[in-house]
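Worked example

This section walks through a single chain of length 161. The input is the sequence exactly as stored; nothing has been trimmed or padded.
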Amino acid sequence: MRHLRLAFFVFVAFLSATCHADSLCPWINKATAFGVLGVSEESPMASVSELSATVCNFTYRDGNITRELRITVEQAKDPEQAFNAYKAHCGKDGNSLRAIGNEAVMCATNKGQGEQVFSRVRDNVFTITLTTSAGNDPTMPRDVLIEKAGLVAEQVSGNLF
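Given that input, the structure is written out below as tokens.
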């Protein structure tokens, strides 16, 4: 019985050592992020960078087209005030989103074709920015950008709860 327990603990230790998750971005994994961008994480034109402990950036470049997913999460002393400051970026064009964090709003980005989601979960305020450099990107038309930005916001919100 004692050898069986030892074998079990060795197996679990080996399994955890070989099957660790890529923790570059704590709110979304690489496969999901690059799936949102319409490519595989194995693509040589796909890159990920953690700009800081609170910012993850996923980029796909192919010729003249660049697609980017940027996730920013920060802890705020007054999350409602911080959220309202971000929400002001949308102006009156912001669309409230239901069931994402404590509250959320989505609007078009200022640069290029893209969508932004601003939300808060408890003491965290987060932004999702999904953009493409091509005005007529067949992989990322406006309706797809809206849908995918919302799905990423749902996942990040869920991971923050």
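What to look for: The helical segments are 2-18, 30-36, 79-87, 142-160.
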